[in-house]
Amino acid sequence: MKSSRKPSFILLTVTVVMTLLLAACSSANESKGSSTDSSPASKEPITLTVWGTPSLSLPTNDNLTSEDDIAKNQSIFTYIQGEMEKKFPGITIDYVNKGWADDLRQNLMVSVMAGNPPDVSFGEDFVPEFAKMNALSEVPADYTTDLVKGPMAAAEYEGKNYAVSGMTGIFALMYNKDVMKKAGLDPNQPPKTWDEWLDMSKKITAAGKGEYFGSVVQTTGLGGTFRIAPFMRQLGGDLTTPDWQKITFDSPANVKALTFLKELSKTAPTGSTALNDEGALYNMVHHGKAAFGVAGPWHIAWSATEKCDCGFAPLPVPEGGKRANVIVGNTLWFVLKQSKHQEAGMEFLRIIASQEYQEKFALASSRMPSNKMAGENAELIKAIPQLAVYEEIVGNEEAGPLPVYPKNGPKVWEAWYKAQESVLVGDKPVEASLAEAQKTAEELLK
């Protein structure tokens, strides 16, 4: 999914002001009562502002072409509207596109600071940060009972949940079978080890003679980090210790993982390692410009739309390593504490967390449900056979979200992005880059 963390002056300077402002707003709201939702019997219908779309998420709804896909997409909106009407007759739900990842995060930060945030929003990796600033409302415990623990780890702060996971994901290896055939390789035998993957990528690049290449390697921003993390974890590495309190950027495992990915990037289409446009990058696999890429379950529908004969398999594993992964594409929905429509916002979250909604979403988008009962529905695998690969990965690989840094998060991330890009896009030695990032991050956490 499209993810990046571009440095932002605004984000690096408003945190203290935000905390004071939110505390004041919270106190003011509490003095007036916890909810100003309209009563069906006494007030006009309300308008609930939602930043995000509960239907097909990524790459975009613009990829819908068939009447069947459009109907499935629309049915999700219709379902939510119908469920909301049961408690809030006449309600209007205003869905607003405010981007994803850093763009969305910055828009939320500014809106909360200004005192005019949406009622509900979604995000992926910044819920604990906003919860720490008292910007989010706690979610009732029974809303999360049926949600898988892994995706919900990113919704927690100090033992409490501040969001629900509407859909989740994990990474697999996507491979273009036509490109493998052109290079004389068996399209039904994707690589299982790092050595096999690198060897195949080199052979494909040589056979392609500039027309097609071995692998795309996403290197920039958050999207790059998500796709690097599984390979560090396969060797026992990570960005922090398990409790997220200490930085481990320069661990031997991380050095080895980035060294491998650097070699793999030499088989990538010319200039592609510097791309921060995920659509352009992965369409190189979809359109036969490259054979391999690291892909989430949203690529099932995306590659089909692009008419790619793409296969999916577990990520290759290094010698002496173990299978491991990262929670990704984890759409977390939350209610902003400054919202005047707390009850309606929470009802929206209850619907998003439900088995019924998540089954509809999965069938329409080929995405993985976070709701346990929806994920166990055999009809989903029957309708979307490729999901079986991702379900197998979930069952056999340890995975968790990316860490949340206890202090100066945006600046710490900036230090890591600089390191990963200087190695995978530039020519700076891996050890030197990670050591420099480690030193910077440690100073930021003091």
What does this structure look like?
This is Extracellular solute-binding protein. Belongs to the bacterial solute-binding protein 1 family. Keywords: Signal, Transport. It comes from Cohnella soli. This protein is α/β, with parallel strands linked by helices and 446 residues long. The protein is 47% helix and 11% strand. The chain is built from 19 helices and 13 strands. It has a 5-stranded mixed β-sheet with strand order 2-1-3-12-6. Strands 8-9-7-10 form a 4-stranded mixed β-sheet. A two-stranded antiparallel ribbon has the order 4-5. It is globular, with a radius of gyration of 22 Å. The N terminus is likely disordered.
Briefly summarize what is shown.
This protein is an alpha/beta fold and 446 residues long.
Overview features:
single chain; 446 residues; alpha/beta; D-Maltodextrin-Binding Protein, domain 2; 5-stranded mixed beta sheet; 4-stranded mixed beta sheet; disordered N terminus; SBP; transport; signal; Extracellular solute-binding protein
- Name given to the CATH homologous superfamily of the largest domain: Periplasmic binding protein-like II
Helices, by number, come to 19
CA-based gyration radius: 22 Å
**Low-confidence runs:** 1-35, 38-42, 57-62
Distance, first to last CA: 33 Å
